[in-house]
Amino acid sequence: MFVPGLIERKRDGSALSPGEWRELMGAYAAGQVPDYQMSALLMAIFLKGLTREETAALLDGMMASGSRLDFSALGKPVVDKHSTGGVGDKVSLVLAPLAAACGVAVPMMSGRGLGHTGGTLDKLESIPGFRTNLSLEETRAQVDAIGCAMIGQTPEIAPVDKKLYALRDVTATVECVPLIAASIMSKKLAEGLTGLVLDVKQGSGAFITDPERSLTLARTMIELGEDRGCPTVALLTAMDRPLGRACGNALEAEEAIMGLRGEGPEDLKDVTLAEGVEMLLLAGEKDRARARRRLEEALASGKAAETFQKIIAAQGGDPRCVDDPSLLPQAEAVEVYYARGAGTVLRVEPRAIGRAVVEMGGGRRKVEDAVDPTVGFVITARPGQTVHMSEPLASIFARDAAGIELGRRALDAAIEIGEGKAAPLPLIAARVTAKGVEKPIP
Ligand code: URA
Description:
The chain has 442 residues and is an alpha+beta fold. Helix content is 45%, strand content 16%. It contains 16 helices and 14 strands. It has helices at 3-11, 18-29, 35-48, 52-64, 91-101, 120-124, 136-146, 159-169, 177-190, 211-227, 249-260, 266-282, 288-300, 303-314, 350-362, 401-414; strands at 79-83, 106-110, 148-152, 195-202, 232-238, 246-247, 333-338, 343-348, 376-379, 386-387, 392-398, 415-418, 428-433, 436-438. The strands form four sheets. The protein has a five-stranded mixed beta sheet with strand order 1-4-5-13-14, sandwiched between helices. The chain has a four-stranded antiparallel beta sheet with strand order 6-9-11-7. Strands 10-8-12 form a three-stranded antiparallel beta sheet. β4, α10 and β5 form a beta-alpha-beta unit. It is globular, with a radius of gyration of 21 Å. The termini are far apart. 53% of the residues are buried. The model has no long low-confidence stretch (mean pLDDT 95). Uracil (URA) binds at residues 84-85, 111, 165, 174, 179-180, 183-184. The site of uracil has 9 residues, from α9.
C-alpha cells in the first residue's frame, strides 16, 4: 500500500474507501507504516474530518487489530460506562461497583490521565496494592465471580488504538470528533457489551469544548455502537467546573468512597445515579423510577460499598480503605486557600485545576512519568456561591512548599470572584439515543 498517496488524498479532502482504512490499520498494527506517516495522516484527518463511512471503517480496522471479550456464557447483561474525560470525574469508581451490586456485569476498561484530565486507572492505583493490569482471562473470571473488574486496556484489546492514541497525544490531534469516537468505541465494543452508557462532557474542561460538537461526538459514538449491535445511550454533562470537590488521584478515590457510602457531594451523586439508571435500563429494567430506587437501596444498604471492597481485594488492593479512607496515601503538605475578595463565584475553571494537578506531580508530562497519588485540591467553592473576603474556598495538597505555591497560583487563576451572575452549564444537559435528543432528561 502506498501511504503517501492516502495522506495526499486525505489532505486534499477526499474520502478513503473502507477497504483502504482497514488495510491501513492492519499495516499499522503490523508495524509496516512508520509513525511519521501516520502522524501526517492524523493531522490531515484532524483538519479535513472523516465521513460517517470512513469513521466506521477506521473503527472496524482498529477493532480487527485485537481480540474481543465474550461474556455470553454469563447469561447476564453486560453493560459499561465511559466518560470522554474531565477534571474531578470519579463517577466510574462509584458507578462500576454500584451497577454490579444491582446485578449488572461490568467489565470496565478505563484509561490513564490524559492532558489536563484525570484517569480512572490512576485513581484506582492510589489504593495501596490495587492492580489494573489484569489479563483477559483474569477479567473474565472476576466478572463471573463478583460482577465487575476495573482494568486498563490490555495488549489484546484494540492495540492500534493504543499506538494511535500515544501518537495523537504528542501531535496535537486529540481534539477531533471522529478520532475520539473511533478510539473510545474500539475499546468499548471489544468488551463484548450488551449496552453502553457514554458520559459526554461539555464545557471548557472537556476535550471537545463546544456544546454543539459534543452533541456530534455523542451521536457519532451512538451510531457506531448501535450499528454494531450494542445499544448505546449518552448523557451530556457539565465540565465547565470540576465534578465534585476533589481533584487528584487519592483525593478522588476518597471522595468516590464517600459517594459509595452515601456521603459524597450532590453533583457526583446526581451524575452517578443518572448514569446508573441508564445502565440498569440497558440491562433490562423497564421502569426508570424503580431503577433509581434499586441504585439508592444498593447505596443505603452498603451493598455497593461492599462490592467495591470485593473488587479491591480481588485486584490485590487493601479493601480496608473503604471503611477507613485515611489508609489512602496522604500528602506531605496541606494548606487552606482563602477567598481574595468578596462577591459571587463566577467560575471555577477546570482546565487550570487539571493542569495544576499534573504540574504538582499528579499526572504525566511524559508517558514514563510516575504519578504522585497524594497531590491535588479539594475545592468547596461552586459557581454561583456568594463568598466573603478570607472565607476558605479550597484545600491544597502537595509534596512540598513549592507545590503549595503552584497550587495557590492555580486557584488564583481558576476561581473567579466578582459582581454579577454565574452561568454554569446544566449538570446534565441532555439524554441522547439513536431516537434523538431529550432535554431535560426524563
Ligand atoms: N478517550 C479515549 O479513549 N480516546 C480519545 O480519543 C479521547 C478520550
